[in-house]
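Risk register update: the risk of archive-format incompatibility is retired. Evidence:
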Amino acid sequence: MTQVNSRTGDNKILVVDDDRTVLNSIVKLLKSSNYRCITALTSDEGVKLIKAEKPLVVLTDLKMETETSGIDILEEAKKTDPDSVVLLYTAFGNVPIAVEAFKKGAFDFIQKVATHHDILHPVERAFKYARMQKENAILRSRLDLTDDGTFYGAIGTSPVSRDLFDKAKRVAMTNATVMITGDTGTGKEVIAKGIHYHSPRCEEPFVPVAVGALPDTLLESELFGYMRGSFTGANSDKAGLFETANRGTIFLDEIGEVSADMQHKLLRVLQERQVRRVGGHKHINLDLRVLSATNKDPEQLVKEGKLREDLYYRLNVIRIHIPLLKERREDVPVLAYHFLKKYRNTGIIKVEKINSEALLYMQQYDWPGNVRELQGVIESLAALATSPEIKAENLPEKLRPTTKRVFFPSTENLDFKSAKAKIIEDFEKQYIEGLLEKYEGNISKVADEAGLNRKTIYRLIEARKINFKRTRPDKG
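Archived output:
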């Protein structure tokens, strides 16, 4: 069963149909999936409810006995709110009307013979799109604000991110050593900076060190400093990064990549709070905070002997884990606009907004490279933009859905006569399959509902190559 967001107003749908039986059936289906339904038996009443109730989505019959139709409701909805999301449904597929409906802004076109899943799925997509439209409008209005961050440079409005930022803010006010974990590109250094700049040490240096990227000899001289003449090229004394970070914060990134020997030296510094330059004899006292990070499971690194257990316990006083971007999809739109603000002037054309459909595709993508990958995509789109709006068709192919929405896609590249025959064939197959499923293969009941005789039903089953299993015996 489809579950929807139950926030007030977020799940309100207007259903319009002049057949009360059909209307009640659809409403029952939608309510079973937690949608809040308002109904109308005429298109005129539907238009009034659109203006009065402002439903997030409208689902309307195309053909009604009244003078107005579903197309009229679509047009009125778009007049009331250009961002209205309207789905139309009808008993029979009609290509020209479907094309007209899409041109006038219909979100989708559904056949009444569709299964429950075929109705609920487009309704669910419509609600996702409608919510994205609203969020997009809010994000566009914030594009020129000076501060759209929620934790220093970290951006996110999802419950997951809010919990993360709240914990980081509480930790920041202490002097505890913190280990930050999370996949590559999730923003571990951004969180580390946030902890520093929300701490009492914020006026002192923040020194990030990619400890996993340097060979031992270079890392040792970089971290601890050196005295003149201690090795070839050491022409003068140099303070190390631990000294540079004194009274501030040092951030040791990818700590799991450091050699065992270097880990031992780091442990001594953390235990004694002193550092000695390479080639020197004097110990220099340190007053600093140590933050570290790894994109691997630190407990597994300890088991594998890649991270000293005693160093792990020194570094892992408090753990902050940053989830994958796909685990906090609600953050994608606000992050996208955050990066758009940064890069919108990098191309020939200034980019002002991101199309809601494009944002929806971004939100559905899994982002294996996490926030860093999203940043790269927005930077590229802004640099190559040919209009002030980023649209779905501008997105990289990996972000676009593998299937496109086309009404009767099987009729592409066919002439009118062939297309018509194909549409009838597809309709007959889908219609009979639906009834066979509904009545569990009982041909008599299928024939009764279809208004056809049993012989015709069997002929259609054979002609359309329909596979079915009779689970109920025919009775007449």
